[in-house]
Target: Oxidase
Amino acid sequence: MATDLHELLRSLRVWDPEVTDLPAFEPATAPAAPLPLFTEWFAAAVAAGQTEPHTMSLATSDESGLPDVRIVMLHGADAGGWSFASHAGSRKGRHLAGRPYAALGFYWPVLGRQVRVRGPVTAAPSEDAQGDLHARSTGALAAALTGRQSEVLPSLDDLARASQSAWERASREPQAPVPSWTLYRLRAEEVEFFQGDERRRHVRLRYRLKGEQDGEAWSRELLWP
Model:
């Protein structure tokens, strides 16, 4: 019997109290800049048992302005920006080369929280990218050595052979260089924090970076749900 998608969708419930804790969020007490609040919320998601809290949606656009989105991992967030990595020749890498601006989206359903970040993207120096890669797992290095990301794959057998070779090299040479591996840093110009509410009175706080003459000063404002 075929699945009725619409019936299935109607049966789902958002933020089931048995598995979701919707904490209070008082914007008036939020810090002056978004990074400390992001760090606090991220730590809370980890403590609450959120699965893979470091995964995020990355939205880019191609040369025609058409959007694309995929899930990637956060590699860090500091004064230099929110970091993620990929091959320069991947679809996202090509998009960022032509339009170096992106948006990130985090969703931690166990707490009913979202964080949205957007701003210009730059590539970190190659030595930073290689250092980031070699600090990760053997599997991460093997995947990077496999390469050819976003290219057409003739067959799964081709992938198996290339992956096996890459795993062997990664185990043999844990510092093997991957020239195409690129560490990207998104310098936030806007960051929004969303706290869900069971009565749908969601709290949204948006930070916006002021002009360069103001340094790293941020304005803050509430948004209607």
Notes: Helices lie at 5-11, 34-47, 91-98, 126-134, 138-146, 156-172.
